[in-house]
């Protein structure tokens, strides 16, 4: 009997830390997509609404530059910062039509930025998310303008040779998908004013 | 009673007590109007693999093993299921915007290609969820085709 109690006690001790962190999840409803509930933006007052598309673009570019030099930790930091920028974005100033475009991109971009932020150390996975994020940011820039000249570049090799785009603030090619392995691989496709 | 026995007894009582805290089951049974099959075409061969290897944590219907009824294992599983569903829920795929659907399909292909999913912690107990090369290729090419069908 004593032996049995010992075994049960021991196994309980081992799994207890897991149980502790699972508790907070019990309250969330079963069939609700939690991604949806987190999509609600915190209300920001008018005077704190200093974030513009320009801030988002800046955040994206620093992420891109970190990937260009193969710095996975810096990319993670930039990804987390970009996610925060999206979260604090004040949509109140947008027209109904702009809001539609923004919201279409927002949830997707935020999720990719978040994953890049939480995958420091796995640069290939960060780049996978960066690829779709680039399309999202491109759509935003097309709709809102970036407040600066940007270049849409194209890497024909990435994604099983299906190719991938990215946005850059410099005219010269610096490929964020392969870093120093093939930094100058790619071509400029479009100049965005 | 020695001190040690008292402690063990307390732990044992605690273990029994937590058995009464059972998380809600993730079993819905019905196919929602927003199910993935309503959005893109899912061949039976693909659907079978998805059900076997993904649906426990990425749908509204988990096929629970017996040990899920033992706490705190059940809590741990519940956390995995909630996390999994928050990232991707095949049962409610249609509620996402088109942009996100494409994005998710691409991530499915990438996760399989990178062998990040199914999780090792899952396949160790679910041998059926270990995907053979042909099965992986099937999922990847399905996800890519489905993604392309959306972007047209």
Overview of this structure, please?
The complex is a heterodimer of chains A (about 190) and B (about 150). Chain A has about 190 residues and is mainly alpha-helical. Helices cover about 55% and strands about 10% of the residues of chain A. Chain A contains seven helices and three strands, in the order ααααααβαββ. A three-stranded antiparallel sheet of chain A has the order 2-1-3, covered by helices on one side. The termini of chain B are far apart. By secondary structure, chain B is an all-alpha fold. The mean pLDDT of chain B is about 90. Chain B contains eight helices and no strands. Chains A and B meet through helix 1, helix 2, helix 5 and helix 6 of A and helix 1, helix 5 and helix 6 of B.
The largest pleated sheet of chain B is described as: none
Q: Let me know the largest β-sheet of chain A.
A: 3 strands, antiparallel
Provide the residue-averaged pLDDT of chain A.
Answer: 77
Output the number of helix runs of chain A: 7
User: Which segments of chain B are poorly predicted (pLDDT under 50) over 5 or more consecutive residues?
Assistant: none
In total, the number of strands of chain B is 0
Radius of gyration of chain B: 19 Å
Radius of gyration of chain A: 21 Å
Question: End-to-end distance of chain B, in Å?
Answer: 75 Å
Order of helices and strands of chain B: HHHHHHHH
Task: Give me the side-by-side strand order of the main sheet of chain A.
Answer: 2-1-3
Overall outline of chain B: elongated
Helix content class of chain B: 55-70%
Number of helices of chain B: 8
* Class by SSE composition of chain A: mainly alpha
């Amino acid at each position: 009997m004593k032996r049995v109690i010992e075994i049960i006690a021991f196994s309980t001790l081992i799994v207890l830390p897991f149980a502790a962190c699972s508790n907070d999840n019990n309250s969330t409803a079963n069939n609700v997509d939690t991604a949806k509930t987190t999509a609600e933006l915190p209300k920001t007052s008018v005077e704190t609404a200093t974030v513009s598309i320009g801030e988002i673009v800046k955040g994206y570019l620093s992420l891109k530059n970190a990937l260009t030099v193969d710095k996975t930790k810096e990319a993670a930091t930039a990804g987390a910062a970009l996610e925060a920028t999206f979260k604090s974005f004040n949509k109140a100033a947008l027209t109904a039509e702009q809001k539609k475009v923004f919201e279409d991109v927002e949830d997707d971009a935020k999720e990719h930025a978040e994953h890049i932020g939480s995958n420091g150390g796995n640069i290939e996975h960060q780049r996978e998310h960066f690829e779709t994020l680039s399309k999202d940011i491109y759509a935003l820039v097309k709709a809102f303008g970036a407040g600066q000249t940007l270049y849409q570049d194209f890497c024909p090799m990435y994604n099983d040779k299906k190719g991938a785009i990215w946005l850059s603030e410099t005219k010269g090619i610096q490929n964020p998908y392969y870093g120093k392995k093939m930094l100058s691989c790619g071509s400029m496709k479009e100049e965005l004013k | 009673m020695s001190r040690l026995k008292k402690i063990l007894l307390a732990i044992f009582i605690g273990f029994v007590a937590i058995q009464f805290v059972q998380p809600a089951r993730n079993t819905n049974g019905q196919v929602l109007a927003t199910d993935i099959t309503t959005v893109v075409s899912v061949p039976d061969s693909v659907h079978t693999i998805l059900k076997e290897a993904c649906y426990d944590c990425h749908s509204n219907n988990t096929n629970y093993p017996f040990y899920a009824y033992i706490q705190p294992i059940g809590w741990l599983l519940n956390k995995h299921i909630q996390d999994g569903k928050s990232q991707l829920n095949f049962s409610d795929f249609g509620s996402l915007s088109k942009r996100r659907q494409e994005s998710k399909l691409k991530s499915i292909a990438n996760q399989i290609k990178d062998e990040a999913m199914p999780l090792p912690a899952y396949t160790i107990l679910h041998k059926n969820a270990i995907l053979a090369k042909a099965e992986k290729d099937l999922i990847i090419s399905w996800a890519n085709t489905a993604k392309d069908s959306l972007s047209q």
